[in-house]
Each structure stands twice: as structure tokens, then as C-alpha cells.
Amino acid sequence: MGRAVTLSTSASARYCRAQSERMLRQYCHGICGMYGLQLGGWALPDDVLDSLALATLFRLTPEQAGDGSDLYGALSQLPLEAESLALVLAPFGLDGVTQPETVLEEIDRVLMPEGHFMLMTTLPLTPWIRVAPRPLPGLARVARYLGGRGYDILHRRHYLYRPPVDDQRWLDRLAFMDRLGLGLAGAGLMVARKRVIGVTPTGGALSVRAKSGRERRHVPAGLAGGGAH
């Protein structure tokens, strides 16, 4: 899903992107701080960025793809100092990850207390899985995992009820499915907040289904912990 949304210009990719940006506008209000990090995804439009009360939102991608990202590096080794971010936003950026526990531990490391983690992911067992061959194991399991590691789950929502057809006329005809919440949701959004006082981990392990910005900004000195490319 992350790759399809980022690179594809198909009707289904445009629909997914538009619905995801609508969810971000709805649920990112009240998140404030100096620095945030977006893992993967696409360059968000200005009105979505304006909904975030952040001084700067950096974007990290695994490789230098010439897409205007600010940072490059592995999700399992984020090139940032501990407790340096007020927000980590992952719009389908964790789809395809083979070791989600490792990535979530890194996100926890760089988030400051009271920081927010916003996850958008393809849901398993839906038609959208064809563009996300290795989705996360579902929002409920991710929520339990984070809850056992000292996070409050603020929001958990399903969306993307229309199937991933690449005919705009059919997508328009099926708009009622989103309005009524009919069918199997193809994607989910979760907003979690890191508690100030940690707790003993009890969330259990996650398993993965083994199925085959505005202008670019420089990272301020002291924010990067080494390893940025």
C-alpha cells in the first residue's frame, strides 16, 4: 500500500490518498510540538500540514528516491536522538515491514513523553491486500501491543470501504459505501499517545502475515542522532 500510494497515479491510489488525507485532517488536531517525523508515504498538502501544530515535519524514506524527503534511513534504526519528536506519522509506511516490533521500539525510542504516534495501515483480509502483500496484523493487535508498552489509544477508525478498482466512474458510483460504512474496510487509522510514566511491557508479540512539507527543510543540529544519509 505504501508503495502503491506513493508511486501510482491510478484511480484507486488517488482515492486512497484523498481518503487518508481526510482522516488526517479530522484526527490530527491538537497534536503540537517542535518536531515530527513522517515515515514513508507521500508529500502531504499544506492544508493537512496546517492541521498539525508542529514547527517542522520531516519525512524519512528508506532510499534516496529524489522525492524531496528530508531524511533517508532504515525504519529499524531511525537516525534521530531519543525522545526528540512530538509526533511520528506513518501513512502506510509500516506496510511491508517484516519485523514490526523492532520498528515500533524505534518509534517509542524517538517519541518524547506525551508524544503521539499516528498509524495508517492496510487491513488484512480485504481486497486492498493485493497492493499490500505484507500488512500489519490488524489495528486491534497493534493497539494491544502499544497499550502494554505504556500508550493510550486515543482513536481507532476504519475507512476505505470502496474496493480498489481503477475505474474512476465505478469509484464515483460506489461513494455510498464510504458514507454508510458498507463492506470490508481496506485501511485503518490509529492515534496513540505515549504516557509520561512507563509500565511493564505486557502487550505480547506482533506477528506479520507472511503473504507472498512544503519546502525541504534541513534537520537542526542536535536533532539527528547520526546515521542520516
Quick synopsis:
With 229 residues, the chain is an alpha/beta fold.
Provide an overview of this structure:
By secondary structure, the protein is of the alpha/beta class. It has one domain (2-194): Vaccinia Virus protein VP39 (Rossmann fold), CATH 3.40.50. 27% of the residues lie in helices and 24% in strands. The protein contains seven helices and seven strands; from the N terminus they run ααβαβββαβαβααβ. The chain has helices at residues 2-7, 11-27, 46-51, 100-110, 139-147, 168-173, 175-180; strands at residues 32-39, 53-61, 71-72, 85-91, 111-122, 151-159, 187-194. It has a seven-stranded mixed β-sheet with strand order 3-2-1-4-5-7-6, with helices on both faces. Strand 1 (32-39), helix 3 (46-51) and strand 2 (53-61) form a beta-alpha-beta unit. It starts with a helix and ends in a 35-residue tail after the last strand. 40% of the residues are buried.
- Give the biggest sheet: 7 strands, mixed
What gross morphology would you assign?
Answer: globular
CATH topology-level fold name: Rossmann fold
- Structurally, the number of domains stands at 1
Helix content: 25-40%
The name of the CATH architecture is 3-Layer(aba) Sandwich
The helix/strand series, from N terminus to C terminus, equals HHEHEEEHEHEHHE
**CATH first level:** Alpha Beta
Report the sheet-strand fraction: 15-25%
Structural class based on helices, strands and sheet pairing? alpha/beta
Strand sequence of the main sheet, in spatial order? Answer: 3-2-1-4-5-7-6
Mean pLDDT rating: 81
Radius of gyration: 17 Å
Spans of at least 5 consecutive residues with low confidence: 1-7, 207-218, 225-229
Query: Please, what is the CATH homologous superfamily?
Result: Vaccinia Virus protein VP39
Alpha-carbon distance between the termini? Answer: 25 Å
> How many individual β-strands?
7
Number of DSSP helical runs: 7
